């Protein structure tokens, strides 16, 4: 039977349409199969989160095992050296001993803060002079950390109100190798944010009361200023602003003025010099020994063995 050409054309078009519909359905099904739903996404995120948590826990365990292994090795070497009567340690062992001692200080040591909120007050001179003063303070902080590393009983040190965008922070990073790895708590917070005010004791050369002993329950604060600063009573004013008690090193009690050609006498010390004095006092219990060892001769004072004569001379 002969077909009308128009019917044949219509049948062909219908066939093509059906095929296209089938293809469209298949494509939609494939796309639906390949596209994850919300539940799948949540499941994947949970799996990823658990994986990351597991990796962090694993890394922490490995680090803890490594530290424990190093500690045991260090103890064995110390015992071995003690048995021979000649404790000669390698640089690596000494570095490990220092690291462990500083870590212990951060857990149980006496606390000392360097208040760096006043670095903008150091100079009203041109920027070149300001940068020189900032550089000197960065050097003092380096020497301070060096003294603390060598101490038998180091302090737990804090650098407070040190802003990451400040000149001092940049100079510390530039000048002091490994500064960001120092075993020091570096924070933009103030000492009042970290400790209750009744525990804080601000050391200032302008305070009336002398420091008699170092109290483990107190937190001592030093003003982070270059000692050449000509501005007076900055640390004392800062302590009054914070409403915390002030004390001074017992220079008047144990030292007398020494005659010199310039007739120069100063009780203002760099932060590293104050720390050296405190460390020695904590080791010896003697202010005379501490001041004799670390008070700079150029400041125009000398230690006297007679406490009464020191008081009368001042």
Automatic annotation (TrEMBL):
Keyword annotations of the record: Coiled coil, Methyltransferase, S-adenosyl-L-methionine, Transferase
Catalytic activity of the protein: guanosine(9) in tRNA + S-adenosyl-L-methionine = N(1)-methylguanosine(9) in tRNA + S-adenosyl-L-homocysteine + H(+)
Compositionally biased residues, Basic and acidic residues: 65-79
UniProt GO BP: tRNA N1-guanine methylation
EC number: 2.1.1.221
CDD domains xref list: Trm10euk_B
PROSITE patterns associated with the record: SAM_MT_TRM10 (PS51675)
One of the record's GO cellular component terms: nucleoplasm
Class of enzymatic activity (EC top level): transferase
Residues covered by region (Disordered): 57-90
One GO MF term attached to the UniProt entry: tRNA binding
PANTHER family with a match to the protein in the record: TRNA (GUANINE-9-) METHYLTRANSFERASE, TRNA METHYLTRANSFERASE 10 HOMOLOG B
Function comment: S-adenosyl-L-methionine-dependent guanine N(1)-methyltransferase that catalyzes the formation of N(1)-methylguanine at position 9 (m1G9) in tRNAs. Probably not able to catalyze formation of N(1)-methyladenine at position 9 (m1A9) in tRNAs.
Protein name: tRNA methyltransferase 10 homolog B
Protein species of origin: Betta splendens (Siamese fighting fish)
């Amino acid at each position: 039977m002969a077909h009308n050409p128009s019917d044949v054309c219509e049948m062909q078009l219908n066939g093509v349409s059906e095929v296209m519909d089938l293809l469209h359905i298949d494509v939609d099904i494939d796309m639906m199969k390949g596209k994850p739903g919300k539940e799948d996404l949540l499941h994947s995120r949970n799996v990823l989160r658990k994986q990351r948590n597991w990796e962090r826990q694993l890394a922490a365990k490995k680090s803890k095992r490594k530290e424990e292994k190093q500690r045991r090795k260090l103890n064995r070497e110390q015992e071995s050296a003690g048995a021979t009567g000649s404790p000669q340690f390698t640089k690596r062992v000494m570095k490990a001993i220092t690291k462990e001692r500083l870590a212990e200080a951060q857990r149980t040591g006496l606390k000392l803060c360097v208040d760096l909120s006043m670095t903008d007050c150091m100079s009203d001179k041109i920027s070149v002079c300001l940068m020189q003063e900032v550089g000197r303070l960065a050097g003092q902080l380096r020497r301070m950390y060096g003294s603390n590393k060598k101490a038998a009983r180091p302090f737990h040190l804090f650098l407070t109100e040190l802003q990451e965008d400040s000149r001092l922070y940049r100079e510390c990073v530039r000048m002091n190798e490994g500064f960001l790895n120092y075993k020091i708590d570096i924070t933009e917070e103030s000492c009042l944010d970290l400790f209750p005010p009744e525990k804080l004791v601000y050391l200032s050369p302008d305070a009336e009361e002398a420091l008699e002993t170092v109290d483990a329950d107190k937190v001592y604060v030093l003003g982070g200023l270059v000692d050449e600063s000509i501005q007076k009573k900055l640390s004392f004013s800062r302590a009054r602003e914070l409403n915390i008690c002030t004390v001074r090193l017992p220079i008047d009690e144990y030292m007398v003025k020494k005659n010199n050609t310039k007739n120069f006498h100063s009780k203002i010390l760099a932060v590293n010099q104050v720390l050296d004095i405190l460390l020695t006092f904590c080791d010896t219990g003697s202010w005379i020994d501490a001041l004799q060892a670390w008070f700079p001769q150029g400041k125009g004072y000398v230690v006297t063995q007679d406490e009464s004569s020191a008081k009368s001379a001042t």
